[in-house]
Amino acid sequence: MQSKDLVQLAEQFGSPLYVYDAEKIQSQYNRLTKAFSKVNKLRINYAMKALSNVAILQLLREMGSGLDTVSIQEVLLGLHAGYEPDKIFYTPNGVSLEEIEEVNAMGVQINIDNLSILEQFGTKHPNVPVCIRINPHVMAGGNANISVGHIDSKFGISVHQLPHLVRIVENTKMNIVGIHMHTGSDILDIEVFLYAAEILFDAAKNFKNLEFLDFGSGFKVPYKKDDIETNIEELGKKLSKRFNAFCTEYGKELTLIFEPGKFLVSEAGFFLAKVNVVKQTTSTVFAGIDSGFNHLIRPMFYGSQHHIENISHPKGKERFYSVVGYICETDTFANNRKIAEIKEGDILSFRNAGAYCFSMASNYNSRYKPAEVLWMNGEGHLIRAHETFEDILKNQIPLPVAVTTS
C-alpha cells in the first residue's frame, strides 16, 4: 500500500482507522507454506486472537487456513465465518469443564492444558479425540507477558509431569491424537525453537495413536527498517528435515501444524490517527492524536514499537516528537521519535498494527472503537463500522425512575 492510499482511506472513512492489506496477509501465508513444502501434511491454523474480524477470517479460510481459537466465542466466530468444525482447533486456558464440553459438542478439536481437566474430561469422554498442550520449560519471547513456555508459566502441562499425564491417559483410556506446544512470541533464535521441538518429539513417543504435532508459533516480524525477524526459510528447512525423520521413527506420517497469528497479519495492518494538537513544553514537543491506549495498547502494555510516519507530509523536515493520546492517563506511543514535521490535522500512520491491536481495543473513557477497512484489489472495503453512542449504551440498563426519585 502507498501512503496516498492510506490518506485517502482516512479521508473516506474517518479517523482513527485500522487498515489491513489483504495482499500482505496472503503473501505471508504463502511464505510459510512454501518454507515447509517438504512436509507432506502441513496445516496452518490462524491464531485468531491476533485479529478476529470475520472478513479476515473469511480471507484466510479461502486460502486454506484452519483456525486456532482460545475461547468458545472465538469458536462461534469461526463457525460464523464459514469454517467447518474440523478446521477449528480449541486451546483454552483456565476455563471450566463445562465450556470445554460445550465446544466439544460442536465437533471442534479439543486441546487440554492441565491435568485436572484432562482427567475429568477423559473419565467422562474417553472416546473423544484430544490433544495435549505440553509446557516444554523453554524461555522464549520478546517480553515476559508473551513468554508462555517457561517453568513459571500458567500454560500447558509440565514436561516433567509426563509420567502423571501418561497414567491419566492409561487409566481413562483416552484417545490422544495430538501433542502441542507454544513457547512464546517474538522468537528470534530458531535454535531455541528447534530445541523445544526436540522436547515435543520426546514427549510424543509416549503416545501411540498420534495424528499430528502442533508446534505453535511465535515467529518474530520486523517492527522497523532493517529489524531482525525469524528466518522462516531456515527454520522450514531444518524443522522439516527433523519432522520427517521423526515420522519415520514413529512409523506413521503425521501432520505438522503451526498456529501463526502475528506472523500473518501484523505487517498487513496500519493504524491511522489524526493529530489534534501540537504542544510545545519546556522540554518536549507533543503530537496529540485522536486516539489513545483504548485503541492501541501494545506500546503501553508490552513496550512494543510501532514505526510512525506522517503520511500527510512525508517529505517534511524531520523533528523529534513524543506522540501521545487523548486518554486521561499517560498513553505515550513514542518518546522523542524522529518524524517528518507534524502539523495539526496531519494523519499519522502506525505500522505493524494488524496483530493484537484492534483485538485488544476497549471503550475506556467511553470512547468509541474505530472502524476497520480491508484493502483488497486496489480498493478499501469497510469491514467494521465506527462505533456510535448507541453502541456505548447497548446492554446498559438504567435505574427505574421510581428508584432514582425516591
From TrEMBL:
Protein name per UniProt: Diaminopimelate decarboxylase
GO BP term, example: lysine biosynthetic process via diaminopimelate
SUPFAM superfamilies in UniProt: Alanine racemase C-terminal domain-like, PLP-binding barrel
Organism placement in taxonomy: Bacteria, Pseudomonadati, Bacteroidota, Flavobacteriia, Flavobacteriales
Active site (UniProt): 328 (proton donor)
Chain ranges of the Orn/DAP/Arg decarboxylase 2 N-terminal domain: 23-266
Known cofactor(s): pyridoxal 5'-phosphate
Pathway entry: Amino-acid biosynthesis; L-lysine biosynthesis via DAP pathway; L-lysine from DL-2,6-diaminopimelate: step 1/1
Alphabetized NCBIfam families for the sequence: lysA
Organism this protein belongs to: Flavobacterium omnivorum
Chain sites annotated for binding substrate: 298, 302, 329, 356
